[in-house]
């Protein structure tokens, strides 16, 4: 009798194991189909001159639900727009921004944060050209400043030599040295004036960069808000239309969307994910018409981490 009970128990465990494995296989197929639907929908609704979904990966966490990790062409402090090969928000750089051009990409380092720009059309193409041109000009101005500083030190050195020699010179030689000193002072005054002009122009260029960057920052932030609103509406709409396709997902579990590194770090050195957790029962309610996409989105647990 005991042997019979053990055999029945083992048979039941084996059957449950086979059933669970079969359910996971089915869920894997459904996830693949759902991922394809989501990618197609995001692609169809993308703004060709704005932030867009680049890639989507999915997985299943037992007891938790399915997770879709989505990477975009931009987010938080690192907007990556697409300038035909010139590789997301734009903080104002320091007075002397560290700007580097890598191929067609413009990379700006600001207080430890690296921002990489990819153009999204004529508007940001002008940004790229502005930073390249301004950076080249600033580099030339810094070279000119170093050159003028060297010239000024050289004139001051010669003037000190003259002053030293004058202490012991007399007559005609002293008169010659006095004349040379006057010429050196005139030369030094001209160099100082050129230094002031170069410094003034450098400050003007830096101010133009700041102003242009402030405008791009506002535009990038507006673009981020626009993308986020469209992404959330589109995602809720997808779940309401096609969420029933995940019929192998166990009751009580969730559908989670993760916007990879999209949110700013709130003072941290790295950006954060923006996460949307939907109860599967709410998705089913939306599929059946009991909820609309906007209400489904409102019931999601949304946070940044």
Helix/strand layout:
Layout (H helix, E strand, L loop, with lengths): L1 H43 L8 E9 L3 E8 L1 E2 L2 E2 L18 E5 L2 E6 L2 E5 L4 H45 L4 H72 L11 E10 L8 E8 H8 L5 H7 L1 E4 L1
Parallel strand pairs: 2-8
Antiparallel strand pairs: 1-2, 3-4, 5-6, 6-7, 8-9, 9-10
Cα end-to-end separation: 56 Å
Helix content range of the residues, please?
55-70%
Side-by-side strand order of the widest sheet: 1-2-8-9-10
Average pLDDT over all residues: 78
Supply the helix-strand structural class. alpha+beta
Order of helical and strand elements = HEEEEEEEHHEEHHE
The gyration radius over C-alpha positions equals 33 Å
- According to DSSP, the number of beta strands is 10
Task: Determine the number of helices (DSSP H or I, runs of at least 4 residues).
Answer: 5
Large-scale geometry:
rod-shaped
Main sheet summary: 5 strands, mixed
Strand content range: 15-25%
Query: Uncertain regions: pLDDT < 50 for 5+ in a row?
Result: 8-19, 76-97, 110-115, 117-121
What does this structure look like?
The chain is of the alpha+beta class. It is built from five helices and ten strands. A five-stranded mixed sheet has the order 1-2-8-9-10. A three-stranded antiparallel sheet has the order 5-6-7, with helices on one face. Helix 1 crosses helix 3 (171-242) and helix 3 crosses helix 4 (280-287). The longest helix has 72 residues, at 171-242. It is rod-shaped, with a radius of gyration of 33 Å. The relative contact order is 0.12.
Descriptive key words:
single chain, 305 residues, alpha+beta, five-stranded mixed beta sheet, three-stranded antiparallel beta sheet, rod-shaped
